Structures are given as structure tokens and as C-alpha cells.
Amino acid sequence: MASARPRFCARWRGCSRRWRGRSPEAVAYAxxxxxVKAVLTVAENLGFWAGVFGQDRVAEALDRMNLRALADRxxxxxxxxxxxxxxxxxxxxxxxxxxxxxEPTVSLDAASVALFAQAVARHLAAGGAAxxxxxxxxxxxxxxxxxxTPFKARPPEDGGRxxxxxxxxx
Amino acid sequence: MIGLLIRDLxxxxxxxxxxxxxxxxxxxxxxxxxxxxxxxxATLAKIAPGILWVGALLSCLxxxxxxxxxxxxxxxxxxxxxxxxxxxxxxxxxALAHWLVTGLPLVAVSPVLGLLLNLPGPSYLWLVLxxxxxxxxxxxxxxxxxxxxxxxxxxxxxxxxxxxxLYIPTLIFGAEVVKRGAAGLSVGTPLALLAGITAGSLxxxxxxxxxxxxxxxR
Lengths: 170, 218
Description:
A: Rossmann fold, 4-stranded mixed β-sheet, 9% strand, B: mainly alpha, 9 helices, elongated
């Protein structure tokens, strides 16, 4: 978990009045599916999401995620890592302060992970926040790690709470 | 919202987007029916309004499951749901894009197919008018059906079963307009009812579709 200042969250103590209770409007989300259309080019894909979020920082996002050379290529012809970079570049064009990500580095090589970490660091420096579920170290100096292992779901006979994750042990 | 409309239209006309499929199907129906029924001009003229409307309805049905399913599969629908565009707006824009890609071409070619089916002279205007008024309802009702079944494996068949009964009023009044036009009777009442159905669906169903998507994305 990485956060410069936890001021954008919905119910945390000490969060700024501007964002309190407005979490859906503040969050940009990236999970397994990148929301990339195969028949559109990289620039078209990114331009669409920028338009949806009322932003126009497409060129900047392309540069940040090293997609400039691929801008006119159809997304169908991208490799898994390139597609992932495009999915992450989408976060840059949302202009939203809180990034929520689930395993963002899947299928990225080391150089691209560093590129992504740089983008996150810049986002934090600009006053944003990021909540990242990850199994590798992104090398973010300000990151706070929340280890979820002690809270793993367990069957009731091993001390787990009854009623929690019933379907997993049914 | 305009960006979403442009993207959907772009996706439809690019390779594999399905643009023209509905149109080709409509064409085939109109060509095949005279082969099956026989070439008697009087019989064809009698059944032409019904055939054209059933053809329009079925070709509309063909491409319905693409409205939300493709966006659901690649994760775009989740992202759109968390975007600044209200989900009601997303549903309305997607129905509009579907109409522009499917319904509008049907309206445009219907006079030609009317000729194939020996449609009586005075009813061409009414055929075009009735299709122009009725097909938006087909798209928006279809968007609601697609929203109900988004995320279901092989939901297309279920969607057809859900949507076809909802198409019946549009079919009845749409075909009635053309039949009355052909017989030289007044078309005011069925035309008004057809417009009413379309206006009602346009006003209500984007909200129902958005609610259905919210349930299905949970």
C-alpha cells in the first residue's frame, strides 16, 4: 500500500473535506482486464478514455508509459506487456486522485515495472494516493505495506470467523 | 458521451464490428420470402408489410448481444461504470449507436425491399416513416435485454426470449401503419401509438438498463 497523504479516502479520519464521501468520483481502477479494444489503435484507445474523463493528456501518458512508438498500432497487435502498459497509461489520463490497482505489474518486464513505479511516484508527489495489491516490491520509498496474510480466510475450526467466506468452505 | 458514441460507431465499422450484418439479413429475408410464398403479386402485396417488419425486428435482434457483452468481456464496462458518465447515459448512447448502425440502414433500404415484395404504391412513405419511428424502440428495448443478460454465458438466446415478446407492440402497430397506408385508410392512430411506444421506451428503458447492469456487475 502506497500513499503520500491519505486525504482522498472516503471514511478515513483526517481526510480532506473536499473528497469525503465522494470516493467513487475520486477513484480510478485497474484490475485484470485492461478495457482495451483490439480494433482501435493505442492512441485511439487512450484518447477515448481521456475523453470519457474529460482530460486531454494523451500525449503525456503515451510518453510516460513508453508507448509513443506504438501510438498508431492496433491494440490487437500488442504484446501482453504492451497491452498492460496501455491499460496503466489509462490511469494517467483519468486525472483522478486515487488509483486502485490489482496486480498492476502482471506481464510487465523489469524496465516497464520501473517505468510504472516512476509514474506512481509522480502521482504521489502531485498529491495523489494509490492502493496497490502486489506481490513484488515496486521500490516506492513512501509505500506503507499492509500484509494481509494474518487476515486470510480460514475454516471455522481453525479459528476463522463463522459466516465469513462460507462459500469457500462449503 | 459523444466520445463513447464515436467509439462505438468506429468499433462497428472496423473489421469484425458487425456493421452490415443486420442489413444483409434483412435483405436475405426479403429475397427469400417470395421464393417460399410464390410469385403471385397479390399475395406478396398482402403480406409485404408484415414480412418487412418481422425482418427488421429479427435483423435488429441479431446484433443486440454485442451492445454490452463485448465491453463486459474486455473490462470496459467496469471502467465505464466507474467513469464520470452516468450508467444511464452509457445505456442510452449505446442504444443510439446500435440504432445508427442497424436501424437507420434498415429504414434507408426498406423502400427497395418493398419493391421486391410488391408493396402497394401509397404505402412506401408510411413504411419508411413507421420504420423510422419504430426501430429506435427496437434498439432501446434490445439494450435493456442485453443489459439484463450481460455477463451470462451464452446469454444471447435467453436475451432473444426476453426481448422478442417486448417487441410485439412495436411490430403490431408498425405493420398496421403500413397495411392501412396500403389500403388508403387513415394511419393516425397506429402511428401515434407507435410513436408513443418509442417515446416511452426511450424515456424509461435507459434507466432500467442501467439498473440491470449495476446488478450484473456486482
